[in-house]
């Protein structure tokens, strides 16, 4: 009895703590399938450090699995304590929230995956797509050790969408104050509408200018090029920042959207300085993404209870786009969001868009993009 327990423990420890260097899956003690964090068929997206652990709202991974009935995430010590909230979507159904912590996390699965194996085999093999991402702009670190699937499950290749959005912004894009964080924010919703891959690098409180702003040690014009969001500064286990290797963004972004400036304005950065830093930033992004169209949002402003809207940097974003055009970059477009957001669309306490407000913004931008010429994919690239 003692011996059996001992052997089982050794197997379990081996399965959990010692991923094979080749990245192959292994069999756990109960026949379950243990996927090490370096398995080539895990489709990572967003920003992951070497641990590997997430930074920035929306970072996560996708799995394409045959005969899935259970999913467990074993998370390491760099996971946010006491918990990180993740969004989970099975078979492209809406994302739901699951709270995870360091240690063993059984992720509840919705939909047809929970059917027993017998009824499934009578219908033939069933494949599932599971998408997972951290929801928060803070408390958003999951440190992935292994993924454990039910016995008989098999990891298949995930084919990413041909469309891939890269969003860059501040609290207005990060989903700050929303119950499900970035998963309910307009960038995420827009990406889903187009059946696209989507990464969101948005930092509440941060200016575009590389200045200290509302608890952010750096501005987005610096932090975008780093693996970590500015939360690194407040951590004790990872109090440093590392360069991001843009070759890891696969697929490469096909469409880039920037909505920024609210915090520069609040920090009294002059319009002239803001235009300069924005134009330089876009030039640097153009070096990374030679062919992607860039979309620059004008501010939708801060709606007030009396129905007025406080706009900042009037004309500045127009000037940024104009300067890019004059530099020969005609693949940069102004998205005029004037009037998109009213008092009804925001939380009265902080004037940030509420859940229906984000849906409204997403709808307006989706319409804008379709008028511009972009069509949603007919099907997700990884079919079920
Ligand atoms: C996750 O944790 C947050 C913070 O404690 C809580 O508000 C939320 O209800 C939890 N979500 C679920 C699905 O349990
Ligand atoms: C579950 O499977 C049945 C039969 O294959 C299908 O009609 C139904 O739409 C599926 N439901 C979900 C939530 O995928
Ligand atoms: C992180 O390091 C910086 C110096 O680079 C220091 O000012 C800051 O207090 C540190 N944060 C923590 C939480 O230790
Ligand atoms: C910006 O300027 C306004 C008006 O002069 C001032 O009240 C405010 O304190 C300044 N804010 C910062 C962060 O310097
Ligand atoms: C943006 O839209 C507003 C409201 O329709 C309009 O007044 C303004 O002229 C537009 N700005 C540009 C640059 O087209």
From TrEMBL:
Keyword Hydrolase found: yes
The UniProt entry, under InterPro entries, shows: PCW_deacetylase/CE (IPR052762), SGNH_hydro (IPR013830), SGNH_hydro_sf (IPR036514)
UniProt cross-references to Gene3D superfamilies, sorted A to Z:
Galactose-binding domain-like (2.60.120.260), SGNH hydrolase (3.40.50.1110)
Organism domain of life: Eukaryota
Could you list this entry's UniProt keywords, alphabetically sorted. Answer: Hydrolase, Signal
A single MF term (Gene Ontology): hydrolase activity
- Per the UniProt record, one Pfam family is Lipase_GDSL_2
For whether the record's keyword set contains Hydrolase, the answer is yes
* Classification via SUPFAM superfamilies: SGNH hydrolase
Signal peptide positions on this chain: 1-17
Ranges of residues in domain SGNH hydrolase-type esterase: 167-359
Protein name per its UniProtKB record = SGNH hydrolase-type esterase domain-containing protein
Please give the organism.
Answer: Dichomitus squalens
């Amino acid at each position: 009895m003692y011996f059996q327990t001992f052997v089982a423990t050794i197997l379990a420890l081996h399965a959990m703590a010692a991923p094979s260097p080749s990245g192959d899956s292994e069999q756990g003690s109960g026949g379950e399938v243990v996927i090490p964090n370096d398995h080539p068929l895990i489709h990572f997206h967003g920003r992951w450090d070497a641990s590997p652990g997430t930074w920035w709202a929306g970072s996560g991974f996708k799995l394409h699995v045959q005969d899935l009935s259970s999913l467990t995430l074993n998370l390491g010590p760099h996971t946010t304590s006491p918990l990180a909230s993740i969004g989970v979507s099975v078979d492209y159904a809406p994302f739901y929230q699951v709270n995870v912590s360091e240690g063993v996390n059984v992720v509840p699965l919705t939909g047809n995956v929970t059917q027993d194996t017998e009824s499934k085999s009578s219908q033939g093999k069933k494949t599932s797509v599971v998408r997972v991402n951290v929801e928060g702009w803070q408390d958003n670190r999951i440190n992935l050790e292994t993924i454990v699937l039910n016995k008989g499950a098999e990891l298949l290749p995930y084919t990413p969408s041909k469309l891939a959005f890269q969003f860059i912004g501040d609290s207005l894009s990060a989903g700050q104050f929303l119950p499900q964080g970035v998963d309910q924010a307009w960038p995420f919703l827009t990406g889903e509408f187009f059946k696209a891959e989507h990464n969101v690098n948005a930092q509440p409180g941060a200016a575009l200018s590389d200045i200290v702003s509302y608890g952010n040690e750096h501005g987005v014009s610096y932090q975008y090029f780093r693996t970590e969001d500015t939360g690194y500064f407040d951590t004790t286990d990872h109090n440093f920042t590392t360069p991001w290797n843009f070759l890891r963004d696969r697929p490469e972004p096909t469409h880039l959207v920037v909505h920024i400036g609210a915090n520069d304005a609040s920090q009294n950065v002059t319009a002239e300085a803001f235009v300069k830093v924005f134009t330089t930033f876009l030039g640097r992004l153009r070096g990374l993404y030679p062919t992607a169209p860039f979309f620059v949002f004008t501010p939708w402003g801060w709606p007030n209870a009396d129905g007025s809207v406080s706009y900042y940097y009037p004309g500045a974003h127009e000037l940024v786009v104009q300067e890019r055009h004059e530099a020969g970059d005609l693949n940069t477009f102004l998205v005029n969001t004037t009037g998109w957001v009213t008092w009804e669309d925001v939380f009265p306490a902080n004037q940030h868009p509420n859940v229906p407000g984000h849906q409204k913004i997403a709808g307006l931008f989706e319409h804008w993009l379709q008028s511009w010429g972009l069509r949603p994919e007919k099907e997700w690239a990884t079919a079920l």
